[in-house]
Amino acid sequence: MEPRAAACAFRRRVALDSGDQVKTAKEKAEEKRLAKLELVREQVASGALVIRQMTAEERRRYPPRATQAKRTGKR
Q: How many angstroms separate the CA atoms of 41 and 47, rounded?
């Protein structure tokens, strides 16, 4: 096992032994996204943020972006 991989495995094992769960990057990103959504909801409720429909001119000026193809993993 490489030194870096061994260190990561050790930290993971210590965290699991102490009762903490190690979160994956995906779980952390999802948690961060949910926190941002909650902040937006709070701002809308308090009136600090207003979400409105785009006007016809804004739709012409800023058309929808084309979706990007999903990348496939090479591993």
A: 10
